[in-house]
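Quick check before the chapter quiz. The format below is the same one you will see on the exam, so make sure you can read both the input and the output lines.
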Amino acid sequence: MIPRIHKRGPRTIGLLAYLYGPGKAEEHVDPHIVASFDGMAPDPGRDPSDSLKPLERVLDHPLLALPKDERPNAHVWHCSVRAAATDRILTDQEWGDIARRIVAATGIDPEGDDAGCRWVAVRHADDHIHIIANLVREDGHRPDLDFDAPRAQAEARRIEKDLGLRELAAGDGTAARRPTSAERHKAARRSLESTPRELLREAVRRSLAGAADESEFFTRLRGEGVRVNQRRAPSGDIIGYTVALPGDHNAQGQPIWYAGSKLAPDLSLPAIRRRLDHDPEDMWITTGTTQERPHRSGRAQPTRLRPAQARDRATDALDRAAAVFDAEDDAGTAAGLIGVGEVLDALSQTASADVRAELRAAAREFERASRSHIRAGRADQRALRSVAREIVYAGGALGRGEDGAATAAVLCTLVLVAVAAARWHTAHGHAQQAAAAQASARHLRAAYRNAAAPPMRALHDAGRSLPAPERDRHRDTIATVLPDQVIGPAEDSLWNALTATLDQVERAGYDPQALLAEAAAMRELNSADNTADVLVWRLRHIAQLPAPTSRRVTKRASTSPKLAPAPAATPTQFDAPRHTNRR
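Here is the expected output.
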C-alpha cells in the first residue's frame, strides 16, 4: 500500500472537481465519500441534488473564519493511498478505516483531538482513495505536518500487516524520487517509454559511467541529446546543474528542468564530484581511450581496447569486487556497489541488440541497490569505474564471436555479483535495495541466456562429439573436483560444455584438474543457477581461451594451438598475481 502526498494547492473546489469528474482517461467510476472528519460531510457522488459547492464550504469553514490576511494560500492537503495490484479489493468500510488511520498518523486529524483539520476521503476506483483536507484546524491553528510523508508510510506498513495485504519494504530515504501521476499521464500521451524524469535519470547515469572528470561528464551528457543548464556563482564556478528533455515543455512553452538532486540523491553535483574526486596517479586519465598510466609529463600513449577485451577486464574487476562483498568491509562493499552500477550502465549503452533491453532493465533496477546510508570508500570505486570507462570507449559490442563470448562471461559474473549484493543488503536490513538487486539479477539472467546461447550450443556439440574415452576422462576430472555434483545419465547433457572446455584447457597446455579446482575455489557456487556454466566461463577466462565456435571446437587439432597473448593488465586495487596451473 502506497500513500503519496501531493503538492499543496490553493483551491479546494479545483481538487474536488477532479476527484468527482471523469478523470483524465475516463477512469473515475462511481466517485463517493468513504469517510470524513465528522461522518456527515455532503457527498455529491451519492446525492444528485448536492453540488461540489456545499462540500467545499464545509471543508473550508475554518479557513473562511480567519481574517483574509491570515488565510494560508496553499491550504489544500491531498494524499492518495493505493493498494498493490495483487491485493484483494477492499470494502468502503476498510478504505474508510484506512483514511482515518492515515489522517491521524500524519497530524491532519490526530486521534482524540476534537480540533483537527476537516477532511474527506473519496473513492473512485477499486484500488485507491484520495484524501483531501483543509490545512486550518477548527481552532484556527495549523496542523503539525512535519514528516507527514514518512508518518504516512510507516502507518501504511502497519495497515498492510493488520489487513493481510502485500507488505512493502520500508524505505530509508535513499530512493530516487518517483514520477508524479501527472508526469506518467503526460508520458503516456506522448508515447514515451518512460517519464522525462526517468529518462533523464538514465541519461545522467550513462554519462557518469566511467567519466574521468566533471568536464567529460557534461560533454557526454550533452552527447545524450539532453539539454544541460549549468548554474554558476558570481565567480564563474559551477555550483549546480539542471537537465531537460527536448520537447518537454510546461503550459507556457518553457522547458521543464530537473535538478540532479531531484532525479536521485546521488546525482546532485556535490555527490557527482565526490565520485569523480581522485588522485590522478590512482586513476587513469584518458581521452577516449584507456590503459597506460600518464607519464609525468602529462602525455600518455593509451591504446583503445576491443569490446571483448574491455569485457574480459571487467570480469576480472567484478570477481575481485565481489570478494569484498563477503568480507566485513561495509565501506568497501558500498563503494563496490556504486562501481558495479557504473559497469552495468556502461554495458547497457554498448550492448548488442540481443541483450540491450534486459541490460538496461538490470541497470535501472541496480541503481536502487547502489544507494544506502552506508558511506562508500572512494578508493574502492576506482577499479570498477576504470573498467566502466574502458567499456564505454571500446564501443559497441557484437552479439557473436569474441564479443558475444566475452559478454556471456561478464554477464555470468554479474548475476553472481547481483545475488551477492542482495545477500549483503538483506544482512544489513536494506529491504528495498535487496529486492532491487534480486530484480536486477533476474534481468541479468535473461540477458545471459540470450548472450550465451550460441557459444554454449557450440560447446555442447563439441563435448558430445568427443571420443568416449576422452569424454569419460574429463568427466572423472569433474567428479574428482566436484564430488557433490551429480553427473548421471539424466544430467549428462548439462556438463557437455564443461567437458569440451576441459578438453580445450588441456590442449592449451594446462592441467585440467588443477585449473578446474582453481575455478571452483574462486567464489561460492551455491547461488549459481547452472554450476557447469559458471565453471565454463571461469575456465575460459583464466586460460584466455578463444571464443567457442562450431568449427573450432568440434575439430580436434593434432597439436596444441597457441593462445593469443592477453592484453597487458592495468593495475587496480583488486589486482593480484594470477596463478596458472600449467603442467
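If your answer matched, good. The chain has 20 helices and eight strands.
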